[in-house]
Amino acid sequence: MEFPTYTSPKKCTDxxxxxxxxFPMIVTSIREVLxxxxxxxVPPDATLEQAFDVMAVxxxxxxxxxxxxxxxxxxxxxxxxxxxxxxxxFQVTTVASVMTRNVACIETRDSLIHALRVMKQGGxxxxxxxxxxxxxxxxxxxxxxxxxxxxxxxxxxxxxx
Length: 161
Known about the structure:
Layout (H helix, E strand, L loop, with lengths): L10 H4 L15 H5 L6 E2 L5 H10 L4 E6 L2 E7 H10 L19 E2 L4 H11 L3 E5 L5 E6 H9 L11
Parallel strand pairs: 1-2, 4-5
Antiparallel strand pairs: 2-3, 5-6
């Protein structure tokens, strides 16, 4: 893949969707962030304990809740803490009773900036990703985006040569 070379500082404001014009080494699309990673999820009738196991094994701060491939919600660390502090019983409590519903999503063609805006406006750190047919294909976090953006930088924060 060939990247355009740096041309002028003015390009910074030309397009938020094509930041490769300025930072050719930096990942700029949601599809690149996902990088064919598997979709981790739990069903709505899973217990919180089962969801914890998935989150712990794969070191995730959130897990999507899918029912036969359909996105039903997302279970986050915040959801779990709120529930356990109020009610306890995570061995028998189902994910469906605690998860966040009506989840905001992004698509693979969306920019990293758009993904960050969706997260900032919604007050969350994880967002499911849909393909163009609206099928769930993954989830990205603020940390994923930060890691992708910093991949093309050297230790001083400058663009790596």
